[in-house]
Amino acid sequence: MIGDKQPEAEVAKRSVFGRRKVVPRVTVVESKQHNQAFLLETLDDIGFISSACPADPATIMEKAPDLVVLGISGGDGIEISQVIRILAANAEFAGSVLAIGPPHSLLVRSVQQLCSELGLDMLPMLPTPFSVDALRARVTKFLSQTAAPRPLVDVAEALKLGWLELWYQHKIDVRSLQPSGAEALVRIRHPAWGVVSPADFIPDSKDPNFRGFSEFVVTRAVADWHAFVQERGSVEISINLPLAFLRDRPAVLDLCRKLPSHPAFGGLLIEIDSHDIVHHSDLVVDIAQQLRFRNLAISVDNVGPEWPELAQLAIFPFVELKVARAFVTGCAEDRLKQVVCRQIVDLATNYGARTVAKGVETRADFRAVHDLGFDQAQGFLFGKPVNAQRFLRSLVAPHS
Fold first, then answer.
1. Which of 163, 255, 272, 390 is found 20 to 30 A from 127 (Cα to Cα)?
2. For the chain, what are the domain ranges?
3. What is the 3-state secondary structure (H, E, C) of 355-376?
4. Hey, is 81 helix, strand or coil?
5. Of the candidates 141, 155, 219, 150, the residue with the CA atom closest to the CA atom of residue 187
6. Mind listing the pLDDT tens digit for each residue in 183-229?
7. Tell me, which fold does domain 8-142 have in CATH?
8. Is the peptide bond before 308 cis (omega within 30 degrees of 0)?
9. CB neighbour class for 102 (10 Å; exposed up to 12, middle 13-18, buried from 19)
10. What's the DSSP call for residue 291?
């Protein structure tokens, strides 16, 4: 019956692969593209592996959905009726259906009646407009409450099967509040676990897959830059590469060959942790001096307590200092953090370098960052990292 809950054993059966919990799958049926994009992205964020209904609804079970979301935004309901009948006729479908639409819509009522007639499990409908929390509450039974085992992913497998992606987080000009660049961050889109964060897979320099992993980051960032410049104009991209990669001269030369020759390309920033720079200062300074004439520059990442040692360098060939989030988050209420931030800003100013405040999550911290004289800000206040497609849509179109 409509709204009846499936036995917990059935939900658990769908959620287990061998002995490992897997991320649930959802297929979205929605004719309006902007509604479809919103639902796919939101369900991804909630914790699903989401996909759009294929052009041929008869193949919908190829996505093996645990949940099918029906976006009922008006218009012709024939396709929705077809999808419901296909699901009901397929013995492999043991999932649920969620209808989203106007609360008093005749079409919504028809969908509910048809699902009931055909014996499909249907979650309580979600009336529009709705909040993300309301959507999450509707689908919470599909989400695992237990932590996933680690390590989740084998890097060699991810490289071979093409699971790696680059996601981008905006860097915002503190004075104009306009996007002024982006940091590229690696994610894996695993077929069973969904989006996997770097903590579960980043290889160290001794890993045999380290070189291939780093080369993926470079190649993907350059390809994404070409896509960005074609659609919305040039975007300054920074990537994270460990010092061990830059020690590999053939790898660096290969990186240089991959850089765009496009006249709009302003260079690529390579972020290196300040700890590595302080402890290998002679090597890093030498590398930075070599790279600056190859349209590459080094950004010092996670600057914090070691900033006085950076100030002691005889040569300062770095174009950017990124202050660690530990000294930015909460700085509006912490005078000690403000003192450290101001000293780092002064250091950068003395050398003509740019400053970025990481971890800006509140308006109060942003006001403090502005008053302290930072050039750019980065953090959840301005958006979380998103995949290249979502990042592209978020870019402000260049002025004509």
1. 390
2. 8-142, 155-394
3. EEEECCCCHHHHHHHHHHCCCE
4. helix
5. 155
6. 999 988 877 667 777 766 666 666 677 778 888 999 999 999 999 99
7. Rossmann fold (3.40.50)
8. no
9. middle
10. H
* Amino acid symbol at 223: A
Q: At what angle do helices 106-118 and 78-89 cross, to 10 degrees?
A: 20
User: Measured between alpha carbons, how far is 70 from 364 in angstroms, rounded to an integer?
Assistant: 40
| CATH superfamily placement of domain 155-394 | EAL domain (3.20.20.450)
Number of H helices, E strands in the chain: 15, 18
The candidate with the shortest Cα–Cα distance to 27, out of 58, 56, 55, 66, is 66
Query: Is 239 in contact with 218 (CB distance < 8 Å)?
Result: yes
**Residue 396 has what DSSP assignment?**
P
pLDDT digit string, tens, across residues 294-309:
889 999 999 998 899 9
Q: Tell me if residue 116 falls in helix, strand or coil.
A: helix
pLDDT of residue 349: 95
CB 15 within 8 A of CB 21: yes
First-to-last alpha carbon distance for the chain, in angstroms, is: 57
Contacts of 41 (CB under 8 A, 6+ apart): 386, 390
Confidence of residue 10 (pLDDT cuts 50, 70, 90): very low
